[in-house]
Amino acid sequence: MRTFASVKSNKKHTFMSLLKGKVAVVTGAARGIGKAIALKYASEGADIAITDLAVDDNAKAVEKELAAYGVKAKAYASNAANFDDTHNVVSEILKEFGRIDILVNNAGITRDGLMMRMTEQQWDMVINVNLKSAFNFVHAITPIMMKQKTGSIINMSSVVGVSGNAGQCNYSASKAGMIGLTKSIAKELGSRGVRANAIAPGFIITEMTAALSDEVRDQWAAQIPLRRGGTPEDVANVATFLASDMSSYVSGQTIHCCGGMNM
Ligand code: NAI
Fold first, then answer.
1. Which long-range contacts (CB under 8 A, 24 or more apart) does 168-174 make?
2. What are the tens digits of pLDDT across the range 245-260?
3. How many angstroms separate the alpha carbon of residue 33 from the centre of ligand 1?
4. Which sequence positions are flagged as catalytic?
5. CA dihedral defined by 237, 179, 183, 188, rounded to 10 degrees?
6. 35: Cβ below 6 Å to ligand 1?
7. Which domains does the chain have, with CATH numbers?
8. Average pLDDT for 92-118
């Protein structure tokens, strides 16, 4: 149990937990940002279903770490880019958890290359895994949220979805698509009590960015006013705000989490 003093009223507010009683689904959560979000949600009392391509050692370890918070936690193998796979896993999750309050569309990949050299396969893979996956999960979960008359959908975009980036036409297009999807869902489902927001992380230190050369990483850091790469926990904090009732009047927005890089 935590307490804090409100600056205005000087009264003490008490929270058992920001997400107590809620069920969250986080895709691509065996590592990186998805894992950090799942752990933060569990620490705030949510029951968690995580998905990833396989329930491997990483996913099993995350499942254990989540359960250590005393919440219900289960890892599911599912290819988020596959429509039928997604609908099947959502049915399994609903059967096991009874409701779904929070959806985080986090699964994502990069297949970088300049447009002149980009293959059709590089384009299709990134659009399918990064953008179609979100359609698949939103499509499967919104009927559940509409019935409940409550829900928060969080789509992982990127600063390059707003600004574009040479060498990442496929990735930038998929992440810009996430913003359009978010705004449209917010408009379609707001009257049913369902909110949708996007997070646009900047340069976050995960295995995805570890693949970049030191030179590229130094170039990124030099452009960041806060002069450091972000951590998965930095993004998880924003995702917790958007999942919780603290953001009950926030919908259709893209929150940048980038150390001031994109203003
Ligand atoms: P990561 O590569 O460390 O983790 C991504 C996870 O998604 C992996 O566990 C992977 O197995 C899973 N995944 C991949 N394809 C999948 C599929 N078809 N179905 C289900 N799971 C799948 O990546 P990271 O850095 O944690 O990124 C997470 C999200 O944040 C991605 O959407 C990424 O584009 C986005 N992002 C990351 C940034 C960064 O700097 N790391 C910056 C901006 C956005």
1. 168/110, 168/112, 169/115, 169/118, 169/123, 170/111, 170/118, 170/122, 170/123, 170/126, 170/127, 171/110, 171/111, 171/112, 171/126, 171/130, 173/127, 174/108, 174/126, 174/127, 174/130, 174/131
2. 999 999 999 999 999 9
3. 7
4. 171
5. -100
6. no
7. 4-257 (3.40.50.720)
8. 98
Please indicate whether residue 79, judged by its CB atom, sits closer than 6 Å to ligand 1.
yes
Beta-strand pair 2-5/12-15: antiparallel
The residue behind tokens 């452009």 is 223
Verify whether ligand 1 is closer than 6 Å to residue 230 (CB atom).
no
Question: Which residue, judged by its Cα, is nearest atom 31 of ligand 1?
Answer: 108
Query: Based on the number of CB atoms within 10 Å of its own CB, is 140 exposed (0-12), middle (13-18) or buried (19 or more)?
Result: buried
- HEC string for 155-169: EECCHHHHHCCCCEH
Cβ of residue 44 lying under 6 Å from some atom of ligand 1: no
| SS3 of the chain: helix, strand, coil, percent, to 5 | 50, 20, 35
167-213 confidence digits (pLDDT tens): 999 999 999 999 999 999 999 999 999 999 999 999 999 887 888 88
Q: Ligand 1 centre and the CA of 263: distance in Å?
A: 24
**Is 0.85 topped by the overall pTM?**
yes
